[in-house]
Amino acid sequence: MTQVFKFGGASVRDAEAIRHLGHLLARFPERPLVVVVSAMGKTTNALEALLAAARSNAPADYRDRLEALRRDHLATVEALFGERAEPVARRVEALINELDRRHRAHAERERPFHYDQTVCFGELLSTTIVAAWLEDTGLASEWCDARELIVTDGDHQAASVDWAATAERVRSLDLADGRLRVTQGFIGATPEGNSTTLGREGSDYSAAILAHCLGAEAVTIWKDVPGLFNADPRRVDNAVQLETISYHEAIALAWHGATVIHPKTLAPLQQRAIPLTVRSFQDLEAPGSTIGEDARHDGEVPALMLCEEQTLLEIRPRDFAFMDEACQHDILGRLVAAGLHAGLIDAGATRLSLCLDSHPARLEPLVASLADDYAVTRRDGLTLVNVRHGDDALLRALGEGRDCLAERRNTDTAQRLFPASQCPATWHLPD
Q1: Which of 287, 302, 321, 369 has a Cα-to-Cα distance from 31 of 20 to 30 A?
Q2: pTM of the prediction?
Q3: Which of 172, 191, 223 is the C-terminal boundary of a domain?
């Protein structure tokens, strides 16, 4: 059965990383295999800066950035292929020139449309180089354009998948010839052929879309970490790896701030009971972590998720009326319109408390809007501590010496909001 592998930007950031990717894939001769690849390193950031230069009418800055993009990718081609570089370099040059033409063609279009016609070139460039390198090293490969496979609506920067049309196109792929397929993450296209992007964690989502439509046996996401942990190892000194968790548990962890797989990636896999494994591309002997149907090990160890740079809003009706369903509907509707997520929501008789990311461009207009109609109290500089499967002793230890500003708890999750100044740089989960 088909396997789907996904590689992020770190695994193709330069020539050395692409060579390592080739060695890794050579260890997996089973076919069919579909490989989904992100843009190289920080290319997406570079393309966003290029877009800003194009739209701000800064031609010199635009040209400098375009040439830097060309130079960086051609340098990778030269480092990989040496004297055999010319055919691949021509393909890279053609893509850069097409990017330049599209900027001129779409300079007056709305930004989300222009964004998608620009940023897609990061994945097109990386996969062109990767597919050529794999073929050059003897791994029979075929480059596939994800824009011809994943059909979406025209909601640019957050496109929704047309599942019926996508399934028809993906299933038309002939994977029986033993060739490895290399395609792009993060991008699709409208039926008219306009490029679109799939939003947050779009490359992982691309792998899940293809796996769902192909009825794949499994998906593997290759990262620079050995798997999923019960806490961020950079912030918790005794974080432990989770070998297996269920789809439900992974979604709950993601909702509460864990940097695990995004729920939109898991949904199409859960529908087909396709397991997803996170593995290290740096250490192939590491066992990895698997998300699937098996829930037997959920909750064996507590999980700690830290959401930093948080703002607490306490919202009250000005006439001291109840915070009833109509008020909550109005407030939460404004939250949705602002594009903000509330990590903690707590309602009382006359107030609604919201803990939000301190995202100035989105938060400030929301606060101003609410202040027109409600009494709003605000506190910034907070850390939201989310604990899954923690007992009373653990919660007491994590809260010791800290002022709890808001709290919620149910049977499996506790949330507490503390001043960031009272939170350590490194946390420890008591035994």
Answers
A1: 287
A2: 0.90
A3: 223
